[in-house]
From TrEMBL:
Keyword line: DNA-binding, Transcription, Transcription regulation
CDD domains tied to this protein: HTH_ARSR
Protein's name in the database: ArsR family transcriptional regulator
Gene Ontology MF terms: DNA binding; DNA-binding transcription factor activity
Recorded coiled-coil stretches: none
Presence of the UniProt keyword Heme in the record: no
HTH arsR-type domain span: 5-102
PANTHER family the record matches: REGULATORY PROTEIN ARSR (PTHR33154:SF15), TRANSCRIPTIONAL REGULATOR, ARSR FAMILY (PTHR33154)
SMART domains referenced in this protein's UniProt entry, alphabetically: HTH_ARSR
Any one Pfam family match given in the protein's UniProt record, by short name: HTH_5
Alphabetized InterPro entries for the sequence: ArsR-like_HTH (IPR011991), HTH_ArsR_DNA-bd_dom (IPR001845), HTH_MetalResp_TranReg (IPR051081), WH-like_DNA-bd_sf (IPR036388), WH_DNA-bd_sf (IPR036390)
Length: 108
């Protein structure tokens, strides 16, 4: 039986896509892109969700490597992980750039 595995790029792309798979996480990323860094309370104030839910979304984004956080007692400061953001940008650009259909519909 042949061993079939996903490529490292496929795994990375899926991980980033999963992390971006909720509108609150997209909103958090958009907010952080406009800031050099910000504190948890700043993020919570711009989203229509509870603090606990914001924390969970931040955890997902951090676990995927799209953001990073530093503890500055008694607060936590977050920012975009620039290195991984560049990797994600290249992976998504390469993925979406694969389809170069000349027709309006590929089913025609």
């Amino acid at each position: 039986m042949e061993n079939k595995e996903y490529t490292v790029k496929q795994e990375q792309l899926a991980r980033f896509a999963k992390a971006m798979g909720h509108p609150a996480r997209v909103a958090i990323i958009e907010f952080l892109i406009k800031q050099n860094s910000c504190f948890f309370g700043d993020i919570h104030e711009v989203l229509p969700i509870s603090k606990a839910t914001v924390s969970q979304h931040l955890k997902e984004l951090k676990d995927a490597g799209l953001i990073q956080g530093e503890i500055e007692t008694p607060k936590v400061k977050y920012c975009i992980n620039r290195e991984n953001w560049k990797i994600a940008s290249m992976l998504f650009a390469g993925f979406f750039g694969q389809c170069v259909c000349e027709k309006e519909s590929c089913c025609e």
